[in-house]
Every structure is written in structure tokens, then in C-alpha cells.
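Task 17 of the worksheet. Students: predict the tertiary structure of the chain below and write it out as C-alpha cells. Keep your answer in the requested format; marks are given for formatting as well as content.
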Amino acid sequence: MTDPVFAGVREFPEGTRTAADAAAAIGCEVAQIVKSLVFRRGDDAVLVLCSGANTVDEPALGVEKADAAFVREHTGFAIGGVPPYGWRTPPAETIVDEDLLVLGELWAAAGTPRAVFPLSPGELLERTAGRPARVKPS
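Model answer:
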């Protein structure tokens, strides 16, 4: 990625495909990892930016899992490396896990399953135009 808003990209040969892998490589808490999870709502892609420590309550958000082909078609990236923005086609909606907003530094995928970049919760909201919400099950 050459976009300057992906400043500070770090690559880890051992991979950052999962939140646990990324946190171990970076040396941060799993909660600080931004999982860019792509779901379907009909034919639309919905992006849920979820804390690495959380799961998504799909029924509450009215979404269903998307397969790898759908993710690549809409984002231009493979699962495990999907960044929170910079997609081929912007998502119909972006929902940001409210638990991310109370943390200091966050880390998100930078387009490959081996690269991440740091950003603040404010930058995440601004750059994605996301809507904060509770995403984890009650």
C-alpha cells in the first residue's frame, strides 16, 4: 500500500493473519488488533471493525458471513490481510466496535497477512466514516 495514511507499516515474516498472531508479533494486547471482518447483507458488503478480543453478534447486526471470494471481490484483498479502508469498492456500511474506542494505539492489517500499521481510535473512525456500536454478543 502506498497511501500515506498507512504510515508505519510493519511486516512480520511469521505472519499476522489472526488477531492472536498479530498481537504476539507486535507485542501488544489482542484487544488492540482491529479485525476487518467482511459480512454480507444481501449483495452488499458490510465491514465490521472488531476488537481482536471480541466476536461479532451477526444476528444483532443483521449480517451473515461472507466467503473468501466475496471478500476478495469487494475489497481487493484476501482474508487475513483486509485493511479497514482502501478497498476496491467501499463497503455499504462500516461498523466500529465500541470497545476499540477506549484503547490508545490500535493495529490493523495493511493489505497482506504479514503487514500491519498503527493508528488511533480517532483515526480509525475518521478514515472509515464508521458508526460506533456494540458488536459483541450480550
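Marker's comment: The mean pLDDT is 92. The chain has one domain: 4-133.
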